[in-house]
Amino acid sequence: MELNFNITENPSYLQVYEFEKYDHEGVRLWLKKNWSFIVYTSVVYVSLIKIGQKWMAERKPYELKKQLVVWNGFLTILSFAVFIRMLPELIVECAREGFYSSLCHFENHNVATSFWGVLFCFSKVLDFGDTLFLVLAKKPVIFLHWYHHVTVAVYCLYVADSSDPSSRWFAVMNSFVHTIMYAYYGLKAMNLKISRKISMLITSVQISQMIFGMYINFLTYFTKVKGVACDRPYWNIEVALMMYASYFMLFAHFFYRVYVSRSQQQKLKRI
């Protein structure tokens, strides 16, 4: 299913910079033809985790504090840029057309939002770099970590050519969470003492993101079932729903294991 929509380069609600005016149709067609590169990249990524862990088995962990500060600082800035450039379109869409329209239609789509949306998708490949630091530091790479990276990257680049209206919500939510998350990691790399409550809050926000993501997919699915027009193909909704549901379960389990179960164990030790 291909969507028909207009992308304006001069929206009344947002100043568009010259570097944001790109050949969106050309990029869309390229992604439609070449999206599978992310599948091969993901296979290599997962393979390198195992290879890297074996290579590091007999070696001392690397000290990468400075590199981590730079890396997380860069991703914080990038995530914040995506968030602040994509958010205005959502606000205007909701204000002018309503929340439902923001999920199902592109009534006020502009080239800047489209540009940062594409950049957001490609940035999911950059997120693979997080794992390199874990492997070189000989820290565990849990299933949630690499599964989340791989599935988000594959989904983003697969659906990018169809320009799913709800993807704006997914990108804005994710970039907001990543801004906070990478800022936190950067500060931790600087050896700043941060309350455990902050990390709990970040995980809670991530879980809230998954709940809202499931809500969006359920809402658009049943809207289409009722025969109301919605420019989201069923396969897209179903795949996104399965992803968000799996993330919710994994993040909720992580929260329980790290913050609830450990706290209970520590209390028992004090008795």
Question: Could you provide a short overview of the structure?
Answer:
The protein is mainly α.
| Low-pLDDT runs | 267-271
Structural class: mainly alpha
Q: Could you tell me the radius of gyration in angstroms?
A: 20 Å
- The proportion of residues forming helix, as a percent range, comes to over 70%
Protein name: Elongation of very long chain fatty acids protein
Transmembrane segments: 68-87, 115-136, 143-160, 166-187, 199-221, 241-260
Family: Belongs to the ELO family.
EC number: 2.3.1.199
Verbal overview:
The chain is mostly helical and 271 residues long. The protein has one domain. Helices cover 74% and strands 0% of the residues.
Question: Which keywords apply here?
Answer:
transmembrane helix; EC 2.3.1.199; 271 residues; ELO_CS; ELO_fam; transmembrane
Secondary-structure map with pairings?
Elements: H1 24-34, H2 37-56, H3 65-97, H4 99-104, H5 111-126, H6 129-136, H7 143-159, H8 167-189, H9 196-225, H10 234-270
Helix pairs in contact: 2-6, 2-7, 3-5, 3-8, 5-7, 5-8, 7-10, 8-9, 9-10
